[in-house]
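TASK: fixed-backbone design
INPUT:
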């Protein structure tokens, strides 16, 4: 069912615009937005603001002049119902791409509220709005609603979810009766297994799995060991290049040496492109200028708790800037979007090399690019998938979140956008990422990590009857307080529990990369023999081998006191 929002619009008797006593004015008009073809705007700075509507049958309506203020508010309101984009031929003309944007979900009086600015901030820059806004969520959201007079401006918390739903247009999580969605009923997932972690893969174990020509032997087994325990820090510089796809797993040492030479030349050619742009040229290239501005802003707020990035003129920060600028040459269409520096900084810290860090980052962005695309389709998809998984695991908790207008799971936005980078310590994120890069034990394992974290917080959220604001605040304050090994254990246990379940809904099988469930789910029952023509859910590609294990409370080799920065780091300089 699609959730609707109560409208506060005063109803007309027949839906028509009100007419004058002596008949309609000759200048008045009425048309359906489905008939709208384009909107022509006035030239900026030339007299009163006006709009001219052109319909699909090429009828041009009289101009609407705005004697007070400008036409921006009306344009913003129209964008709730149709998609508007600038014409490539005439920047003053907005072309219309009609699509149903669920009219019931807009507030007719939204434009009168000070909180309208919040929506615009999130639409314009979702990264900053979530990173900065969520960190001050209590005051930021509700102070913006109250304005100067709380008695006249405050909007009830129950409507805040709808402000956020407008921030990512088209995101409707509970559309289970729409085509392509599946009604998930309560399913017995069976007993959840107990999972333990092993020690990190050591340099000795890695070396034993390399042949005389430098090829990695038994790649699947190596990935399983990395998934179960991560890597010792001394090994990360080598292993991450394989995990991220920079080096092929079956390559020889000589082939890798040749590849690095080729990639080094390619990197510096791209770097030279932006380095050779003069100030005058950059003034005429607004995109490159904007990319540089965003990069400098993000680099300056890099986490300085790590010694690699200490100090204002630290070589590590300079290299961050240069690598990100070069990436803009590598993928000019995507360019730079705020948040990318969060993904790069751990890579550069581990690689301690500009070229290797760049190509590892480019490989990581191949996985993550949908998170940063303008339409944010990747974020929409992940939030919907997360809701589907969470509902299967705990429908009661999902119902509680929905009752508090938190069913859209926007509090997980930051987790997904930059893969938990702001939720764990710098060293813990190294462990978490290398485990995820194994792509075990199933597809979208990061969504199960989200489920594991939320499951851990469920009791406090429900027992203390947290509302919308308290849930956002509580989830945000988990940052740096989550035990990475505990979360990995819980997420793996959830995956094993689901793999063994023979009644998984089709939607869940697809999210996790499993085949159809062996037993027909209740919502898809056709009355025929349940086992006819159905294939069994496979066991995960992850094999629970008898690997050496230790409890999650066991020792770990990534204690900050045990990992020192290479002496070469202080001598790193940009090329």
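OUTPUT:
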């Amino acid at each position: 069912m699609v959730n609707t929002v109560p409208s506060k619009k005063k109803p007309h008797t027949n839906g028509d615009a009100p007419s004058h006593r002596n008949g309609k004015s000759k200048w008045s008009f009425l048309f359906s937005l489905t008939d709208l073809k384009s909107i022509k705007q006035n030239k900026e700075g030339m007299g009163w603001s006006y709009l001219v509507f052109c319909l699909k049958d090429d009828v041009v309506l009289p101009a609407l002049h705005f004697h007070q203020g400008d036409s921006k508010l009306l344009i913003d309101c129209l964008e709730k119902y149709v998609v508007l984009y600038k014409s490539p031929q005439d920047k003053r003309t907005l072309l219309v791409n009609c699509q149903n944007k669920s009219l019931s979900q807009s507030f007719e009086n939204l434009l009168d509220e000070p909180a309208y600015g919040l929506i615009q901030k999130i639409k314009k820059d979702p990264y900053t709005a979530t990173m900065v806004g969520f960190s001050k969520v209590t005051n930021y959201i509700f102070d913006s609603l109250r304005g100067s007079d709380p008695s006249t401006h405050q909007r009830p918390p129950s409507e805040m979810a709808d402000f956020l739903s407008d921030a990512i247009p088209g995101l409707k999580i509970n559309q289970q009766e729409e085509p392509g969605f599946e009604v998930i009923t309560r399913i017995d997932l069976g007993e959840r297994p107990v999972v333990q972690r092993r020690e990190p893969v050591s340099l000795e174990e890695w070396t034993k799995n390399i042949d005389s020509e430098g090829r990695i032997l038994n790649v699947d087994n190596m990935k399983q060991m990395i998934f179960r325990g991560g890597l010792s820090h001394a090994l990360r510089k080598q292993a991450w290049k394989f995990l991220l796809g920079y080096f092929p797993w079956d390559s020889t040492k000589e082939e890798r040496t040749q590849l690095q030479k080729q990639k080094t030349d390619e990197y510096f050619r791209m770097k030279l492109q932006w380095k050779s742009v003069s100030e005058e040229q950059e003034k005429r290239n607004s995109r490159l200028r904007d990319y540089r501005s965003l990069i400098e802003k993000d680099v300056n707020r890099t986490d300085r708790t790590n010694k690699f990035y200490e100090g204002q003129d630290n070589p590590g920060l300079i290299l961050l800037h240069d690598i990100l600028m070069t990436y803009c040459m590598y993928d000019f269409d995507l360019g730079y979007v705020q948040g990318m520096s969060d993904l790069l900084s751990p890579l550069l810290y581990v690689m301690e090399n500009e070229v290797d860090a760049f190509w590892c980052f480019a490989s990581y962005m191949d996985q993550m690019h949908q998170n940063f695309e303008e339409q944010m389709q990747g974020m929409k998809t992940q939030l919907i998938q997360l809701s589907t998984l969470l509902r299967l695991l705990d429908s009661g908790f999902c119902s509680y979140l929905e009752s508090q207008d938190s069913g859209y799971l926007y509090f997980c936005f930051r987790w997904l956008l930059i893969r938990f980078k702001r939720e764990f310590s710098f060293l813990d994120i190294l462990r978490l990422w290398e485990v995820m890069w194994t792509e075990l034990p199933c597809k979208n394992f990061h969504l199960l990590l989200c489920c594991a974290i939320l499951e851990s917080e469920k009791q406090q959220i429900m027992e203390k009857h947290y509302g919308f604001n308290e849930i956002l605040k509580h989830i945000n304050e988990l940052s740096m307080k989550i035990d990475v090994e505990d979360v990995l254990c819980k997420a793996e246990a959830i995956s094993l529990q689901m793999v063994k379940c023979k009644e998984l809904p089709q939607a869940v099988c697809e999210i996790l990369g499993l085949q159809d469930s062996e037993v027909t789910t209740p919502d898809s029952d056709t009355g025929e023999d349940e086992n006819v023509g159905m294939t069994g859910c496979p066991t995960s590609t992850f094999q629970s081998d008898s690997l050496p294990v230790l409890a999650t409370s066991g020792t770990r080799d990534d204690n900050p006191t045990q990992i020192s920065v290479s002496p070469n780091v202080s001598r790193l300089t940009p090329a």
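COMMENT: The beta strands are 36-41, 49-55, 64-66, 82-86, 93-98.
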